[in-house]
Automatic annotation (TrEMBL):
GO terms for molecular function: epoxide hydrolase activity. Keywords: Hydrolase. This is Alpha/beta hydrolase. PANTHER family: AB HYDROLASE-1 DOMAIN-CONTAINING PROTEIN, HYDROLASE-RELATED. Pfam families: Abhydrolase_1. Residues 36-280 form the AB hydrolase-1 domain. It comes from the Bacteria. Coiled coil: none annotated. It comes from Rubellicoccus peritrichatus.
Length: 299
């Protein structure tokens, strides 16, 4: 952290909110009466990915980062009892925010956070005061053609053989480590606790079914892209894009595509991989702080 940032570090609090019988774990910082920033995590991560953001920005705003059902420290209902789709994840987070009394907020979205967040933004366009997009795809051109091919093939036909291939590629310890270190400047500087903790969650009995259901449902996010793009064009929400340019999953073209629909955009590319906060947290946090003060919460 910079000297300036260190002066404003705050404590992070941890809690659980019961939503429809499911324990939803969350991290928060700042005073709840202040303007809110909701931080939505990606796959295979959890709210843990926002640990530095929560500490650095809680002095000025209220920040809250929940774990989705089946992720992080949240409850893990059986797929027979809870439908693991992005529509349903968004419904759960919607109810979570309602129960927490959070009615207006800026959305921070990374990876899976984008399809969860855009469902909230299109449902409540007047409540969402801005977007912080970190390798959160909303455009077809954002997919890496090679790494996305197995998943697209999976969408065409869900077979046991393809499920096994997806599990090996994206749910193994090595696959999860690859998501964290591929494209980074200094792989040896990325904390291995990230993939060790994520894999420990993904490796629980029953998790394979949960994650495969979500991978299969991701095709419905792509079908929703036109709706999300229309929202961006019509509502013009204040938006910050902070993108790891070496992302092996969502390529820079996905970031550039936001320029087509947004007239004004804070746009930054970082020489790192999919989880840009892991290597460039200080720089990205400074951009977020400036964006919130100057644009999202300027009034």
């Amino acid at each position: 952290m910079t000297t300036e940032s260190a002066k404003t570090l705050v404590e992070v609090r941890y809690g659980t909110e019961v939503v429809d019988g499911i324990n939803i774990f969350y991290r928060e910082s700042g005073i709840p009466q202040k303007r809110a920033v909701v931080l939505l995590h990606g796959y295979p991560a959890s709210s843990h990915m926002y640990r530095d953001v929560l500490v650095a920005l809680g002095a000025d705003w209220f920040l809250i980062a929940p774990d989705y059902p089946g992720f992080g420290n949240s409850g893990f209902p059986d797929p027979k009892d809870y439908e693991y789709t992005f529509d349903n994840l968004a419904r759960t987070i919607d109810k979570f925010l309602d129960q927490k009394g959070i009615t207006e907020f800026v959305l921070g979205m990374q990876d899976y956070g984008a399809p969860v967040g855009y469902r909230l933004a299109t449902k409540y366009p007047d409540r969402v005061k801005g977007l912080i997009v970190m390798n959160g795809n909303a455009y077809e051109e954002g997919f890496h053609p090679e790494t996305s091919a197995p998943v697209r093939d999976f969408w065409n036909e869900r077979t046991a053989e393809k499920e096994a291939a997806i599990a090996t590629q994206l749910m193994s310890l090595e696959g999860i480590k690859w998501m964290y270190v591929e494209g980074t400047r200094k792989p040896e500087g990325i904390n291995p606790d990230n993939w060790v903790l994520d894999f420990a969650r993904i490796d629980r009995p029953g998790q394979e079914k949960v994650q495969l259901d979500l991978f299969y449902d991701y095709q419905n996010n792509v079908k929703s892209y036109p709706e999300w793009q229309a929202y961006l064009r019509e509502r013009q929400p204040p938006t910050l894009v902070a993108w790891g340019s070496n992302d092996p999953i969502f390529v820079p073209a996905g970031a550039e595509a936001y320029r087509k629909d947004l007239k004004e955009i804070d746009f930054y590319m970082f020489d790192t991989g999919h989880f840009a906060l892991e290597e460039d947290a200080v720089q990205i946090i400074d951009k977020i702080r400036d964006f919130l003060a100057r644009r999202a919460f300027a009034d």
